[in-house]
Write the structure tokens for this entry.
Amino acid sequence: ITKFINALSAASETGGPAASAHLLGQPDHYTDHFFKTFFWKSYVRRICDSTPAPLRPLADGDNVHAETVMLGSSAGRIVPMSKVDDYVYRPQSIATMSLYNFLRGSDVKLLPKNTVTENSDVVADNGTSTLKSGGILRFNSNHPRFATHGIAKRALADWWTLNFAGGVLPRPDRGDREEYCQTMLTIFAPSGWRVASDLLLSAESWSAAFDSCEFDADALRMMANMNVLYECQDARDDFSA
């Protein structure tokens, strides 16, 4: 038996310290960041759906996949579970939060069992609840899971780092300029949005809306950094040529 155990240990790719850490419930790596996957195209799709046809930079089916919606239960009813809805129907107290900051600084949480029901809740104008339940902000009353879930804000030191997934982000230096401006406004618009008109305002194009938008310093830095990888790849290709 000893020889058998030794043979297995020698062939194993997991060392003793790693196995012990796993058994003790310790993490297998350490980082000062917390990561969340961000499928950005679903949000752009929602904006496209509420954009007047002449201003849509992408035709239906062009590079923007339809949102995948899961089904769940809420107050005994089957309801759609959409992360896009979580932002669109966010509480009024954080209505002016950009999509980027909303995803980084909040989590969807189940409301406490003793939370008041939807019918007896305190609802402000525009159908938006102002009530906090156990430190959790209530969704807008139009949210499918208004009766069971809400938004919990994270401490600034614990904000998520977003991992952009679902496709290559549009570039500012090539390709469709309107597509790039629409995507950046969707993600970084400082006043947030619920429908496309919140981003377009009175602008006649996405590029005009982008140029007139006053992004904060962090958003401008993020947009500049997004293109660094592509610039490096272009420089590599130019050097190889």
About this structure: The longest strand covers residues 34-39.
